[in-house]
């Protein structure tokens, strides 16, 4: 039994260090932004698409903010999905002030379609430009160069998908710190594999792709029955090594309002994990190999300490745990500089354990669930 536990521990440790050094570390240490010279090569039009349900309060602040984007040719298309909070009247008023704002109002959603995918499809279909940039009503670009940076790989490099980072507003409290760490780790994960030319997901808070490609693939064909997944599953189905770019720059990110109660947060994560069951097998393997080895690393290490309480094995286990924690601390800090322009993430060892528990508890609930919804 001891040999089996030791074997599992070293195998899990090997996988963890491989991911940290060669997958996450490659992005953290070697990714370089293409620089300013490519941003203005082609200033073709960009359509910002926002699907919103009862978001009048957010739209009132967001629309004027987006109008200050440092880009010469763009429009904003808001899809008002059955709102009852005065969104339609607000959008009508704002449209008189801003000529590049358009809105589509949905009165009902066909029974066989999921609401957010239907809203996004309508918005993309009526958009004027081939480059569409998606975000949510509660998101805020941190820079006036957001459109310019997120759309550059499509405009200048003929890419189909551009994956961006959608962070969350920092607030006091344990829940917010868990959300910050989990969101950062998720970003590091899909940015790292995207940088390795093996993209598997993106987030709808900050995602750019071609309208023509969307229409060619018949929108969300084969995904209509799945609640959620309008972002990660669409990317998962169609992104590949030749048509996808990642943009990691502090000016390219959006910041959203985080959940403020554990109940709301659990509901959100349940929806996210529910979509994960529909990933392609190779992408489930990417996720599963890291997360399973993460679990085995901790459980096998604890098992060794309990079963063999002499100082040599305890020292070896603690040494590997601390070495991994230090490596993770450095890599997360460097990756965060690329993504957000910030550095250190404190208490990484504690939040790493929280992340593991979070993934397996909420992940299993979301994976097994049959009832999730947008709003």
TrEMBL record:
<feature type="transmembrane region" description="Helical">
    <location>
        <begin position="313"/>
        <end position="333"/>
    </location>
</feature>
<keyword id="KW-0328">Glycosyltransferase</keyword>
<dbReference type="GO" id="GO:0016757">
    <property type="term" value="F:glycosyltransferase activity"/>
</dbReference>
<dbReference type="Pfam" id="PF00535">
    <property type="entry name" value="Glycos_transf_2"/>
</dbReference>
<feature type="transmembrane region" description="Helical">
    <location>
        <begin position="6"/>
        <end position="29"/>
    </location>
</feature>
<feature type="transmembrane region" description="Helical">
    <location>
        <begin position="287"/>
        <end position="307"/>
    </location>
</feature>
<feature type="transmembrane region" description="Helical">
    <location>
        <begin position="345"/>
        <end position="368"/>
    </location>
</feature>
<keyword id="KW-0808">Transferase</keyword>
<dbReference type="InterPro" id="IPR029044">
    <property type="entry name" value="Nucleotide-diphossugar_trans"/>
</dbReference>
<feature type="domain" description="Glycosyltransferase 2-like">
    <location>
        <begin position="47"/>
        <end position="164"/>
    </location>
</feature>
<protein>
    <submittedName>
        <fullName>Glycosyltransferase</fullName>
        <ecNumber>2.4.-.-</ecNumber>
    </submittedName>
</protein>
<keyword id="KW-0472">Membrane</keyword>
<keyword id="KW-1133">Transmembrane helix</keyword>
<comment type="similarity">
    <text>Belongs to the glycosyltransferase 2 family.</text>
</comment>
<dbReference type="InterPro" id="IPR001173">
    <property type="entry name" value="Glyco_trans_2-like"/>
</dbReference>
<keyword id="KW-0812">Transmembrane</keyword>
């Amino acid at each position: 039994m001891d040999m089996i536990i030791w074997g599992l521990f070293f195998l899990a440790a090997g996988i963890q260090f491989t991911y940290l050094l060669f997958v996450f570390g490659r992005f953290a240490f070697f990714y370089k932004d293409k620089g300013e010279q490519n941003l203005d090569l082609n200033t073709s039009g960009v359509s910002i698409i926002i699907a919103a349900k009862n978001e009048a309060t957010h739209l009132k602040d967001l629309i004027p903010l987006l109008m200050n984007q440092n880009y010469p040719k763009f429009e904003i298309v808001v899809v008002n999905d059955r709102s009852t909070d005065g969104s339609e009247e607000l959008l009508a008023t704002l449209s008189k002030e801003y000529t590049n704002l358009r809105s589509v109002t949905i009165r009902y959603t066909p029974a066989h379609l999921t609401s957010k995918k239907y809203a996004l499809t309508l918005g993309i279909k009526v958009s004027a430009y081939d480059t569409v940039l998606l975000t949510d009503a509660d998101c805020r670009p941190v820079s006036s160069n957001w459109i310019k940076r997120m759309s550059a790989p499509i405009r200048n490099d003929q890419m189909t998908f551009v994956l961006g980072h959608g962070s969350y507003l920092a607030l006091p409290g344990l829940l917010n710190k868990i959300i910050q760490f989990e969101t950062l780790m998720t970003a590091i994960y899909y940015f790292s594999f995207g940088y390795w030319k093996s993209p598997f997901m993106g987030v709808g808070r900050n995602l750019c792709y071609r309208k023509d490609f969307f229409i060619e693939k018949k929108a969300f064909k084969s995904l209509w029955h799945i609640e959620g997944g309008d972002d990660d599953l669409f990317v998962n189905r169609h992104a590949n090594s030749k048509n996808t770019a990642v943009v990691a720059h502090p000016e390219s990110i959006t910041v959203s309002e985080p959940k403020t109660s554990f109940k709301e947060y659990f509901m959100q994560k349940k929806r996210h994990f529910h979509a994960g069951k529909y990933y392609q097998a190779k992408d489930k393997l990417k996720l599963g190999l890291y997360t399973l080895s993460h679990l085995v690393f901790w459980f096998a290490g604890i098992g060794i300490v309990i079963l063999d309480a002499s100082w040599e094995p305890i020292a070896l286990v603690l040494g590997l745990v601390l070495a991994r924690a230090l490596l993770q601390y450095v890599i997360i800090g460097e990756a965060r500089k690329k993504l957000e322009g910030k550095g250190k993430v404190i208490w990484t060892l504690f939040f790493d354990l929280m992340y593991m528990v979070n993934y397996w508890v909420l992940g299993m609930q979301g994976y097994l669930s049959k009832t999730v919804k947008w709003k």
